[in-house]
Amino acid sequence: MAIVVESDKAAFRCGRECLRFGCVLRAQSAAELSARSLDSLLQDYAFRALVVRPRTGIVYDGNVPSNLTGIKVAALRLRSGSLRRRGVNSYKEFHIPIGVLEQPYVERLVLVYHNLANWSSLYYPLPGYTYLAPIVGLLAYDAVNLSARNLQELDIRASKDPITIHLPNVQLVPEGLSPKCISFGLDGSFQFDNVINRSACSAAKQGHFSIVVEFTAPAPASAPAPGGGTGRQGGGGEKNNHKVWIIVGSVVGGVLLLLLLCILLACLRKYRRRRNIQRMEEAAERGEPLLMANVGFTKAPVALETRTRPSLEDDYVP
Q1: Global pTM value
Q2: Cα–Cα dist 103/295, whole Å
Q3: Which residue ranges make up each domain of the chain?
Q4: Residue 65 needs a FRET pair 20 to 30 A away by CA distance; which of 74, 140, 269, 279 works?
Q5: How far apart are CA 184 and CA 208, in angstroms?
Q6: pLDDT tens-digit series, residues 108-123
Q7: CA–CA separation, 6 vs 11, rounded Å?
Q8: pLDDT tens digit string along 127-162?
């Protein structure tokens, strides 16, 4: 039986799909599922793609019910040792380097991929922020039983280089805003990080990832004054702009004038110094040169030789 359920986002139709959790669940809307319930549901549909003789290292795309149209899911089965030694060069938007370890250890594991598309903000609401790209997720499960349901996730972590996520369909960033990578943990926690090359993020463990930007709604415009003040407001704006330009011009002119004054004072001081030096040189040239004599290995000025005439004392005796 199908029913129609209204949610905060939109009204959509619910199918009669059985969720295979061991019993038949009553029909419910996707909006009533939590993010963790969605993870369990997508794990089930991803594992369904591996039922018919899956090959190791091959990506298998799964199908989701009609009430989750737009969400994409895929599965990739790997050997634990191969994942650790070789990594995965390209799994959808994820690049998994060598050295990724899982806890607890299993011989084989399945990496389940999520792309929540336009459901991102519904399952992972983030007040005050806007998503610039759809949320993509990477979760790991034990591959011992591909028919298992409601499995517990493995804990995978990068021991060397981080896992790189190249987000698809990233929207342009509004002018003046700075985008951030965001990662959601399985426990509901989240943390921000810097964006790499405009559309990529990095992570050390599994989870869900996207790019967001902080968004503040613009303040409502003030109501116009009664009496049709639109024209007067426009004239007032032009007058204010004119005043601003006058102030800016005055400040710039004052700075230039002060700079010219400083240059003039520096030139005047330099001119006076040169003039004093020139006067001293002219005075030195007009003076009588002194005779030079060698004293040892150096030359030194000497006075002219003078001789006092001798006089007899008898000349003064009467």
Answers
A1: 0.58
A2: 97
A3: 33-214
A4: 140
A5: 5
A6: 999 999 999 999 999 9
A7: 4
A8: 999 999 999 999 999 998 888 888 999 999 999 899
